[in-house]
Amino acid sequence: MRKLFFIPIISLVMMFSGCPAEEVEEPxxxxxxxxxxxxxxxxxxxxxxxxxxxxxxxxxxxHSVVIGPEKGIVKAYNSDFKIKIHKTVEDVSVDYFDxxxxxxxxxxxxxxxxxxVVDFVKEFFETGKTVAAICHGPQVLITAGVLEGKNxxxxxxxxxxxxxxxxxxxxxxxxxxxxLITSRTPPDLYDFSRAIAKSIMPEKxxxxxxxxxxxVEKKEEIEKKEEIEKKEEIEKKEEIEKKExVEKKEEVEKKEEVEKKKM
Length: 263
Known about the structure:
By secondary structure, this protein is of the alpha/beta class. It has nine helices and eleven strands. The chain folds into two domains: 197 residues, 3-Layer(aba) Sandwich (Rossmann fold), CATH 3.40.50.880; 62 residues. The strands form three sheets. A seven-stranded mixed β-sheet has the order 5-2-1-6-7-11-10, with helices on both faces. A two-stranded antiparallel ribbon has the order 3-4.
């Protein structure tokens, strides 16, 4: 899984960074069947915290739509990467998406100042659908007033702000509290992305869990069989050695008897 995590990143940069590439639309039937995630950004987003989850989810067959306060191309604060915001928060409906991702960077401090963005995030959270925020991302959730009493994490620099908002802060790579998923920094991105995918497609992960269990049970069965065969082989060897020992003893006794008669 970790290898697959990085496969689509280059193509995704082409798709979302505003490069002049032709967009290919999928058939409507296929589009409707796909799980869809909203990725909320604006100027100053963190490149990896946006692109990595998009790439991971793409490998799982989950489609991402980049949304923000305004349409257009925005730049990451930590690199020259850019991303295209396809829809504004006022253009989309909460009902359309299965999850919302809020990457970190400097963007959250701007997003939290936008009333339409905060209203969208609050409405999304209250539906019970997955809302995932990493690094400074939880700042938008603080402004939306949805974190009181929640277990969550985030960048060390906003730890006190989270606590003041009523958060039970946990210093872990990923913290899950009902529909809320939070992580700290880029090194947590694998756990963060996996948790999002698992919340959207639990049946796929349950299937993998069953397959893993079956694999373990099959391995244990093979090992048990090999152990029985090894034990039988040892017993057979001991039996042969015992028989040879008896035969050798009888041969010696027979030889001694013959020599005794000669005397």
